[in-house]
Design brief:
With 146 residues, the protein is mostly helical. It has a single domain (10-140), classed as FAD/NAD(P)-binding domain (3-Layer(bba) Sandwich), CATH 3.50.50.60. It is 43% helix and 9% strand. The chain is built from 5 helices and 3 strands. It has helices at 17-28, 44-48, 51-72, 84-103, 127-130; strands at 10-13, 33-37, 110-113. It binds flavin-adenine dinucleotide (FAD).
């Protein structure tokens, strides 16, 4: 809380790819930057709910297709069974890895994230909880993210 600046040179609103890229670039250029987002994690739609989770699941679906292709060539891998819990946690691990990496490289920008999870976000549905259910408030006001 003490680290939270009362003034800033550049204020970026939103922790998605648009926001964090702008904030990190401005910080790289030597500006004093503060980024605020109303989610508990950085990454926005792309990392938390969109591009990354969807591509991870598409990649998993491709494995089913490979099994089909193999069968047509005489290689029978057996009937596939999908463990949705395991699939979901694998997808969440990927999201967590990328979001965690992003939060570790803020280029000196001060980052303030919401302490509250959004209504309607439930465990395993992507978003912050799906990305590994961090402690609420862990990173609020830039703590640990400077
Ligand atoms: C299923 C899906 C798959 C996708 N796949 C791809 C893909 O493969 N490739 C690709 O290029 N794009 C893809 N996209 C699109 C991509 O997610 C968006 O283009 C990208 O997230 C936009 O980034 P952004 O920073 O502009 O906005 P967002 O990612 O929406 O981030 C905005 C952030 O700002 C926060 N915010 C908003 N208003 C405020 C406020 N007033 N105060 C504080 N914080 C605020 C939001 O909560 C959010 O965290 C996909 C999208 C979806 C839904």
């Amino acid at each position: 809380m003490n680290d939270w600046p009362s003034r800033t040179e550049v204020l970026v609103i939103g922790g998605g790819p648009g926001g964090y890229a702008a904030a990190f670039r401005a910080a790289d250029l030597g500006h004093q930057v503060t980024l605020v987002s109303d989610e508990v994690r950085l990454g926005g739609v792309c990392l938390l709910r969109g591009c990354i989770p969807s591509k991870a699941l598409l990649d998993a679906a491709e494995l089913l297709r490979l099994g089909d292709r193999a069968r047509r060539r005489g290689i029978d891998l057996g009937e596939p069974r999908v463990d949705l819990e395991r699939l979901r946690s694998w997808k969440n691990e990927i999201v967590e890895q990328l979001v965690g990496g992003l939060e570790g490289i803020t280029h000196g920008a001060v980052v303030g994230l919401s302490q509250r999870k959004r209504q309607g976000q439930r465990q395993g549905q992507g978003g912050q909880q799906g990305a590994g259910a961090p402690d609420e408030g862990k990173m609020a006001h830039g703590e640990g993210l400077r």
